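User: I'm putting together a teaching handout on how multi-component assemblies are represented. Below are the sequence lines for each component of a complex, exactly as they appear in our records. Could you produce the 3D structure of the whole assembly as structure tokens, so the students can see both representations side by side? Please keep the chain order the same as the input.
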Amino acid sequence: MAARRVGVSSWHRVLSLSGRCGRCSSTNTALGKTVENSEDAREEIVLPRRKTWDKLAVLQTLASTVKRDPTAAHYMFQDDPYLMPRNSATARLFSLSKESGRNAAKYIIKEFPHFFDKILAEPNIPSLMPEICTPQIEGVNEEALKERINLRMVKVSVDLFDQLLQAGTPVSLETTNSLLDLLCFYGDGESTQEKESKEKEDLEESEVNASEQETPKRPPQRGLHPSASRWRENNNAERIFKIMPERNAHSYCTMIRGMVKHGASAKAYDMYTELLNDRHKADVHTFNALIAAVPFLKDRFLERWELIKMFLNHMAQQEVQPNVRTFNAVLKTLRRCGGVGRSMAVPVIKEMEALEIEPSLATYDHLLSIFYRTADLAPSSIISEVLDDVEKRSFTPQDPDDARFFISAMQVCCDLKDIKLAYRLNKAMEKGDNWKFLDMDRLNSYWSRFFSLLCMMEQIDVVLKWYKEMSPSLFYPSPKNILDLLQALDAANHLEVIPSVWEDMKQLGFSKRRDLLEELLSLMSRDQHPEEIQLAFAKCAEDIKTVHEQSGKDQAPVEWTGSALGSVTVVFSRAGRIQDAWSMMERFQQINRIPTELVMDEFLNCAKQTNSPDEAIKLVKLAASLGLPSSQKLQSRIEKEFELSEDQKKALESIQSDSDSSDDSDRD
Amino acid sequence: MKVEVTTKRKFQQLKEQEIKKQATNEQEGLNSESSTFQNTAEDVQRSKPLHPELVQAASAVASSFPRSKEQAESELLAQLRRHEETTDKQRRGGTINIRNVISEMAVKRQSPAQRGVRISNRISLEMDEDGQRIKPGRPSSRSFDSGRSLKAGKRLNIFTKASPETENALKTVSSPTIWDLEFAKEIAAVTEQPPRNGFEEMIQWTKEGILWEFPIDNEAGMDDDAEFHEHIFLEKHLKDFPKQGPIRHFMELVICGLSKNPYLSVKQKIEHIEWFRNYFEEKKEFLQEI
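Assistant: Of course. Below is the structure of the complete assembly, with chains in the same order as your input.
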């Protein structure tokens, strides 16, 4: 009986999970009931309570069955194979362009709503329809003002407010406060301006991030006050504030918050003293803003800490309960307080614990920055304790700075060169929703650093496994990563993987980077390798040669350097490709460089192998023309090892005599 | 301010401890190393004269020697002086022999690691924007850092945890201001990720209302208060009409048409029927004649 009951309910589940079958739910229960009735008429039928599923339940279940494909790019790029990004710069560009396309479409719908008024879908989809942003209420009254404030029209609201005041109608305190809110938030600019500047800042920040991939340490002063000093003297907010007949705590608070947001920290502090004089109480957000503004009010570390303590004491006196953002603001300010910050950070954390406030990721981020600022002061117990806490929880965002945690933690692991901590951190990131804190740029830099650490510390097969799994679907290796990978291969003596690394380099678009090419070529040409590997290397070298020679549109070809040329020649020689090697040798004169001994020896070896004494003689001629001292040695070597015909012997001697005469002429 | 003073004192204490340690080291008889310095110190100290009786006794002993009387005498005298000095020192106890200490200290070199640390401390000082150089405090604060842990430590003791009642009282309900709305948007944007596969994209679209909700509900978006039978079975509204006759026939046709009409609401259908009733009521006189 139990089995049958289970069977019926599981059949319910099967029916409901089939998703797209489109059957009405009432028919489900009807069928279920009839089945039950026919099967089991005698016993008491207890109908199971109908389960109500969330509208997203089916889709979420289906989504959980799909894992990441390690060979494909991110889903948002899967459209046209030509448009798949190859490296991190193009990935960012494509995602931003996709977003900007969407924004352009939204802009068109907003600007020309009369083209989009036909409702074709049934039922109507409001999110795709143009939204009504024009105010409906006309006239000079308070309702109209409230509506315009709701629609976030800054200038219009201010004008209407002035009109109301001139007409003599009193505006209620609440409406004035909401107008002040609007003005302080937007800092006297318009709401669209704010969005545009924010986007520009995002772009700039991401560009800076790109350049910082080479130097992972962030400069300490960056990004502290993006909207600095945009608070003009006596702007609308201040003016309205001054002419207000009565003010309450909310007015003061919103003014303080606005001033801090737009960089007028000193004024914010004065406003706070005014608030205290009027015997009002500030709220927790105001205090958070004031604490965040402390670095701009004082310079000395101890003074900053004293000011923070003063604010906290005021909070306690005014019976304002701090929240997690209060403590995050304190720690953020302590980051800029050097040694004082280090000694005071732990008591702040203890206070948080005592008040039973759960720390957010931003808390941990600030802690790591305080204690791991310089490379030598490194108490490693802090990071393991932080990781202990982070591993246990799946975090929800509570502070905009939360997203920086994983990056800074990975940076600390790289500095400490501790691979176990890095593994723990990675596991913590994959837990629950924590992965969502890393957006595309941050994900790239996070994995970049992790991969560098892996290359340094782990065995080569582990490194290669991670490499195959993670790139290019999750992150795009940076040039530094490729260098690290090459060094790791070198250390583990796995140089046969180099041709596939070269393929990846070409795909990533690094094929013109001089440092990578030098490293690659020197690794290939350093030692003698078995036959197939040499042939593969030679193919690689040929590719590199074409890179150096082709001039793409508007691009100057990569210049040959002496070492690169020599390495290519050596690789060709070892693979037995004498003609290619000779063409390389000819180029030496073009770039005014001299081939080294090794190069010439290898060339001769190759000539001997392929039995081409002509080439050998050409080499000696070249050496003589360049006036190299080793030409004699080469000549003797040729005479010993090669079977020369009469003509060749004569040619050889003539070279020698030429060189002798040129030597004599030099001596004179 | 407070921090500075205590660290200075600490450093002085450390310095004194160092000096004491070195003095005790010396007293334990460093005969092997840097004996030359000791000797020079002793040479300097030789200005203190010995007891005249001792000198005479020493010379008497020396004269009893068979050869090199002067050498023996000088040796004996030197040994006596050494005895004097050690007794003096030990009588004085832990007082510091500055010259020895300094000479000792001059020999030792600063280890490169220490120098590196001091330089890096200086560099980090320069990076920190503090106007004052808390240089003397640096070595002592470093010793604190190495043992720092998040578990051990005292709290600030500024706040007290509010009891739940006061917490509830403090939570005042007010409509969210623009600050709150924008902050909520910012927070939501922190963990916003583009969809990773087609299903997540469909989830996003369903949330926005672009995609239909599965299983498909025929009546999605239709807000009709009445059930289907109220639309179709409209005979009960014909109660007031005559049961037979052409009017009834006509009304039944009207009802048939209305029941097939999906565009009118039930109210509108009832209004239709009402209108017909009123119309026929008015025309009753004419109809009676028929």
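A couple of points students might notice: The CA atoms of residues 8 and 14 of chain A lie 10 Å apart. Chain A touches chain B through 87 residues (CB under 8 Å).
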